[in-house]
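Continuing the batch. This is chain 6 of the set; chains 1 through 5 are on the previous pages. Same settings as before, nothing changed between runs. Recording input and output for traceability.
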Amino acid sequence: MEKYNTPVSSGNLGDKVRSDCYITLELKKGGGLELDIKSKVESLYGQSIRALCQKAFDFFEIKHAKLTVEDKGALPLVMMARIEHAVKQVITTDKEWLPDLIEENKSVSKKEQFRFSRLYLPGNTPSMMINAGIHKPNGIILDLEDAVAPDKKLEASFMVRNALRAINFYGAERMVRINQLPRGLDDLKFIIPHNVNLILIPKCESADQIKQVDQEIEKLKIHANVIYPVYYMPIIESALGVEKAFEIATASENVVALAIGLEDFTADLGVQRTQDGRESLYARTRIVNACKAAKIQPIDSVYSDVANMEGLADNVKNSKSLGFEGMGCIHPRQIAVIHENFAPEKAEIEKAQKIILAFDDAKAKGLGVVSIGTKMIDAPVVKRAETTIRLAVNLGLIDKDWKTKN
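Output for chain 6:
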């Protein structure tokens, strides 16, 4: 299929747009190639932009076309995504014009790594992606669902794919929220071959949905020769999803966490979301219980008032007291508050240290019983203490060699 003399576009326009570009492409039957570059930095980067556009023509074997680039400081990976999306609106081709995969984005996730914070980023807004990693969230979510307008979802897929390959997220787990199934299954081909760590599955209501994702990902991994693990975090956002939580949590060995989305959940109940969260207490405890039974992580919803840091801190403490092990955030300023309040307190760390030392001492003496004072210490208590210590070390609250200093 070739579509001639019909201008198509890709990207974002507007006075507030930055680190992006707006591409207009018209395929012609003759007349050669015409380039029109509009950029405030054309004197510095105009030649590089032209060279990149020529590479696109050569890569897609386009001989006759007019390409207009309205540049707002787009990086090459962004411009490549916009041009490719435009090209694929006028010609049919399976070729992918990919930026190089940077070394930092070859890292893989662990099933049980800490996921205190995950920062949502709109999948079609590159300006929010480029420096997101410097805020040190545990995870970066490139969002293809609610944060992207319906008519922009396809072009966002190209942007997210290129971001997974070429934006340095400084060690944050690389996550993508796909669209609600069945549409979300089509998103996977843009994601799975490109070193994603974790897929968020929104509005999940059954184990069958997880199995559909499993099957599609397995096909894509075989086709692309992918050997790294890809984990899942289903998002529970309805009354039915809450009732099916354990079924969903155990639907695949790739499910490492369940998250709850309280905006959609409270809408499904027909109630208002409140600061104290009494309307969602049953659902949240049900999610925690399902996750603990399945030995995966329960992750709480986002806190939507980005200006209320005191309210966020209270929310995190309440979340932790219910058994949650992380939550979402929609602004970088929320990350530090989330980390600080999910972190173990000093007394909690000191108690865990005493338990570990007592356990080690009992083992060294060949004792089958561990006690601190008059209290017996069993295996679950030791395991919880080990988790607390691992977390404290990870957050820099104690030295990794703390045992040798006691």
